[in-house]
Specification:
Blueprint: H1 12-17, E1 19-30, E2 36-50, E3 53-66, E4 74-87, E5 91-103, E6 110-123, E7 127-138, E8 141-155, E9 163-175, E10 185-197, E11 200-208, E12 215-216, E13 221-222, E14 229-241, E15 245-258, E16 261-275
């Protein structure tokens, strides 16, 4: 199951105001080849910046129903907490945890956990580079992931085309037991391009090559049901007004293996954030 929340960059208004709250919701539509029928997600993200720290919290509920009515509905509850420490004007460190509680028979029968750590060096509005590390604990096995990345800004915000931000990431994923998916090592690649022009922010993102049990978006997104993903693409559009309000729409298309067949899913996400 993919956790829906997508927070690649928190805008400068969030830091200036000190607090940001973002409720969100999404509808998941699965293809006819998938055993899953449809699902929905509701959640809320909150951050508080108090120099030199930034505290982030997210709570989310996911529901999935299956085409086979004999398979019980799937319920998942995610809780994420991350502490960021900013040293000077160039370094940032983070540590956190993402807990996942799963209920598919009314007994809260499963618990997954992801430990989060990261380091980043950046030049404001120029470039940033960093490394994220995740340690995911599942029943009878674990997953280690190292994700180095590099991003840079270019263009002119005041020009007709606006300014741009390009980010590249490599995800090295190591499973402790190759019997889980048939392979114990995955190498996956992410590329994202954002355009900033006046009140609009548009982001195109793609993920290439196979992956399983992947963690992304700084620890907020976890693929914890064992599907082997092939690739995914997303379009994210945000509109900001009065410098503190942002409304967002996002579409994500993903291909993955489901019951030994290739299936796909479409996720339609809506969000609203308020800085204060």
């Amino acid at each position: 199951m993919k956790k829906i929340l997508s927070i690649a960059l928190i805008t400068s208004m969030g830091f200036a105001a000190g607090n940001m709250l973002m409720p969100y919701g999404a509808y998941i539509d699965y293809s006819k080849d998938s055993a899953k029928d449809y699902g929905y997600v509701i959640g809320a993200y909150y951050s508080k910046f108090s120099s030199p720290f930034k505290f982030e919290f997210d709570a989310e509920h996911t529901y999935i129903t299956y085409k086979n009515k004999y398979i019980k509905d799937y319920y998942q509850y995610d809780f994420t907490a991350i502490v960021n420490y900013y040293k000077g004007y160039n370094w940032a460190f983070k540590i956190g945890n993402h807990s996942i509680f799963i209920d598919q028979d009314g007994n809260n029968n499963k618990y997954d956990n992801v430990a989060i750590a990261g380091i980043k060096y950046y030049k404001y509005l120029k470039y940033n580079t960093g490394l994220d590390f995740y340690y995911s604990s599942y029943d009878r096995f674990n997953v280690k992931q190292i994700s180095p990345y590099y991003g840079f800004n270019f263009g002119n915000y005041y020009s007709p085309k606006g300014s741009f931000y390009l980010k590249l990431a490599i995800n090295y994923i190591k499973l402790s037991d190759e019997k889980i998916t048939g392979d114990d090592t995955y190498l996956n690649y992410d590329i994202a391009l954002s355009n900033y022009i006046k009140n609009w922010t548009t982001t195109l993102k793609a993920s290439f090559a196979k992956s399983a049990y992947k963690v992304e978006n700084g620890g907020y997104v976890v693929y914890n049901l064992g599907e082997e993903y092939k690739n995914s693409f997303s379009l994210d559009i945000k509109y900001t007004w009065k410098k503190v309000n942002t409304f967002g729409l996002k579409y994500t298309y993903s291909k993955f293996n489901d019951n030994y067949t290739t299936a796909n899913s479409s996720v339609y996400l809506i969000s609203y954030s308020r800085a204060f």
